[in-house]
Amino acid sequence: MNLRQFAQNVNDRSKGGLVIEVRTDGIAASPSEIVGKVRSGDLAAGEVLLSSMASDTRIAGADAIPFIVHSYDDALRLWNAQRPILQEALDKQGLVILYAVPWPAQGLFTTRPVRSIADLRGSKMRTYNPSTVRLAQLMDATPVDVPTQAIGAAFKDQRLDTMFTSPATGVDSKLWEGPAKYFYNVRGWYPKNIVIANKAKWAALSEANRKTVMAAADEAQKRGWMASEAASTVSMAELTSKGIKVDTPEPELRNELRRIGEKFSVESLRETGAEGNRMLIPYFSNQGSASTPYTK
User: Quick check: is 291 in a domain?
Assistant: First the structure.
């Protein structure tokens, strides 16, 4: 586990001067409590889904803008544009960014072939946050709120016939056991987990320990991005082996999804204002430029 390796590296390199204990049992904090407990100092640090912070920190919602990134390199460029602006916002909340790692790209699972958005009209689409509800609305699909652990059953019970999620979630949900037989690798968006620390506790560390932590964090980010891409490849291969037809989207569908991404971007800029402009304008301006893979 990447987070445990990060903690172990810090523990080893500080020669026991700084010990990070990783808790994944939910006892220290539930997922919804982590940010608040890191802010208050009850926890020194924590890992959360970045877009889950958007209600308090609007720029964190950039992860949920669909169809504006098309590869891990794009996702990295967006993170490079987002990170300094996000850190400014989190600094006011007493938080420090350590690193972020993406989930595999969100693709499209369906029970029938899809060539264009028209084929999704009237479908029952799984939603789990305001962005996915808005996405369903733009596609004239019916939003159906289904938690991750209930996805497989929802397809079997025909409560769902369409869903955007990662291939890894499709594997975990064993979608091949139900009517979902198609997966389109549309690379819709790359949601990230972010590791944050309490600012006061961070400032109380010695300069040497802060450097040790950030060096380990940089390595964890690089390692995590590489592992995410590998997991995506492995998951799509497993879907294929189980009988799911894995395919790339038709040009018509790809162009329609791109236009939806543009609409989302405009709506996001209305909500985020100057912060959104500072992030998205450089991102779109540099779309043709190369970036160093998997680094900050």
Answer: no
φ, ψ (nearest 5 deg) of residue 58: -60, -35
- Which tens digit of pLDDT belongs to each residue from 189-221? 999 999 999 999 999 999 999 999 999 999 999
| SS3 assignment, position 202 | helix
222/216 Cα distance (integer angstroms): 10
Residue 193 falls within a domain, yes or no?
Answer: yes
Contacts (Cβ under 8 Å, ≥6 apart) of 294: 72, 76, 221, 222, 225, 226
Rounded Cα distance between 294 and 208, Å, is 24
As to burial, measured by CB atoms within 10 angstroms (0-12 exposed, 13-18 middle, 19+ buried), residue 290 is exposed
> What's the pTM value of the predicted model, to 2 decimals?
0.88
pLDDT single digits (tens) 6-59: 999 999 999 988 999 999 888 889 888 999 999 999 999 999 999 889 888 989
Burial of 119 (0-12, 13-18, 19+ CB in 10 A): middle
DSSP SS3 for 48: strand
**Is residue 284, in this structure, part of any structural domain at all?**
no
Q: Give residue 11's Cα distance to chain centre.
A: 28
Give how many domains the chain has, as a whole number: 1
Range of the domain at 44: 2-103+189-242
